[in-house]
Amino acid sequence: MKRRNLGQTSLKRRVCKGDPMQTYDRLAPELRSWLSCAALPWSPASARRAFAAAMVRTGGDTTRALAQLDQLERSLLSRDAPRI
């Protein structure tokens, strides 16, 4: 089994389609900065989807959208914590 830098998690893993580095390079600078400090190993595609949805919910307010991503990540961590 090939080891990866994902750590121990029970969260669902998905296969990346395309070049994840190109996808990462196309992300908004604010989102790339947030990803660099994220506790979970987000894929660029899933981070982009979550950020776009948060931007719609907040009316385009980047600060509030990033706060929603923080809340989403806390929720995922609390769901995963009892299993690992």
Structure description:
The protein has a domain at 27-83. The chain is 56% helix and 0% strand. It is an all-alpha fold. The radius of gyration is 13 Å and the shape is globular. It has four helices and no strands.
Which shape, going by the Cα principal axes? globular
Pick out the low-confidence regions: none
Mean pLDDT: 86
The separation of the N and C termini measures: 19 Å
* Largest sheet report: none
Radius of gyration: 13 Å
Contiguous helical run count: 4
Strand content: under 5%
Helix and strand content put the structural class at mainly alpha
The total beta strand count reads 0
Q: Please write the string of helix (H) and strand (E) elements.
A: HHHH
Name the features.
4 helices; 56% helix; 84 residues; mainly alpha
Topology:
Elements: H1 20-25, H2 29-36, H3 44-57, H4 62-80
Helix pairs in contact: 3-4
Brief rundown of the structure:
It is built from four helices and no strands. With 84 residues, the protein is mainly alpha-helical. The chain is globular, with a radius of gyration of 13 Å.
